[in-house]
């Protein structure tokens, strides 16, 4: 009656949770519930509109005109964005664009150069 993961050491299914730790009563192995989740997140891959894998520091171009919120202007199609930083979130690229400053972009609207 439990959805907790089996013990990675002895595969026991009697794992229980205590204060953010998973504990195995059979071999006394303890591991962090949080560490397990973080490990999954690091496997996230960012891809541009064409399916190329993006990495921190890449240069991309914008593939469609992007209107900025609050009348901040338009980032024109073809705008080159250097040294991107990949982040989690709705806008998953953190970058700085000449004339606009720091802003967030979506990977689906850019293409790797
Ligand atoms: Zn165990």
From TrEMBL:
<dbReference type="InterPro" id="IPR013988">
    <property type="entry name" value="YjdM_C"/>
</dbReference>
<protein>
    <submittedName>
        <fullName>Zinc ribbon domain-containing protein YjdM</fullName>
    </submittedName>
</protein>
<feature type="domain" description="Protein YjdM C-terminal">
    <location>
        <begin position="47"/>
        <end position="113"/>
    </location>
</feature>
<dbReference type="InterPro" id="IPR013987">
    <property type="entry name" value="YjdM_N"/>
</dbReference>
<comment type="similarity">
    <text>Belongs to the YjdM family.</text>
</comment>
<dbReference type="Pfam" id="PF08274">
    <property type="entry name" value="Zn_Ribbon_YjdM"/>
</dbReference>
<dbReference type="InterPro" id="IPR004624">
    <property type="entry name" value="YjdM"/>
</dbReference>
<feature type="domain" description="Protein YjdM N-terminal">
    <location>
        <begin position="3"/>
        <end position="32"/>
    </location>
</feature>
<dbReference type="Pfam" id="PF03831">
    <property type="entry name" value="YjdM"/>
</dbReference>
